[in-house]
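Running this now, will post back.
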Amino acid sequence: MAVPELIPTSARDASDAGVTYHIQGELVPVLSVELQQMPIYFEHHVLLWKDPSVQIGLKSLAGAFKRLIAGLPILMTEARGPGRIAFSRDGAGHLFPIHLVPGQSIDVREHQFLAATGSADYTFTRVKGIANIFLSGSGLWVDTFSANRDNAVVWLHGYGNVFEVSLKPGEQIDIEPGAWIYKDPTVRMDTQFQGLSTGLFGSNSRLFWNRFTGPGRIGLQSMSYIPTSSGADNSSSTPAVAGGLIGTVIKLISG
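Update: finished.
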C-alpha cells in the first residue's frame, strides 16, 4: 500500500466548474471564491467576508425532516455573484478542494464540509452502529456530493494537515475513527474491535478503528475530530490530537 501523501496547502487562480478560487494561510487558512454565473452553497457560520454585490439567500435541502430529527442543519446558505466571497473555520487546519467530473461522487464525514459549487448535488446517509463506538447521540452522518451533469468543486476542512492515500482493489488501511475525512464511494468502511486482556487496562478495555477496503481514495487528517453529543459543528466541539495519522483509540468499557 502507498504511504499517504500531503495534499497541497494553498491554491492561487485555480478555475473549475465556473468559478475561480484561492486558498491562502497556513494556520487558519481562508478560501476566497470569485463568482460569476455559478452560485455556491455553504454552511452559514463559515462566511468570513464578501463583496456587497454578492447576494446571499437560503438553499433548501432534500430530506429536511430527516435532518431535523437528527439535529442537523435543514438549510444551507447560497451565494450568487458577481463578486468575491471568502470562508474560514474557527480552527487550525487545512482547506482543500475536491474536483468532481460528471458521474463522480465523494463521501464526506459530517462537519468537514465548507462550500460547494451549485453544480454539486447533495445527499446524506447515516452509518448505523458507529454511534455505540466512538460517537454519541445521532451517530455518524456521511454527506455525499455528486457531479451529475457538469463539473463541480467541493471544498473541505481538515484539522491539522490532510493526507490522501489511494487503495488498489482489495488493499486495506485501518484508520483511527476521528481521523478520516472523505472517501470514494467505491471504498468500503467497516469497524474493527480488539479486546485487551492484558496490560494496564486488563480485560475491561478495547481498541477499535475503521477499516477501509479499496479501490479508491481516502483522506486523513492529522488531528482527530470527535463531534459533541448535540451534533453541533466544530465551533462547540474540540478536535483531539490523534496519535499519528493511523492509530487507535482506547476506550474503557465498564465491566
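Residues 116 and 154 are 4 Å apart (CA to CA). More later if anyone needs it.
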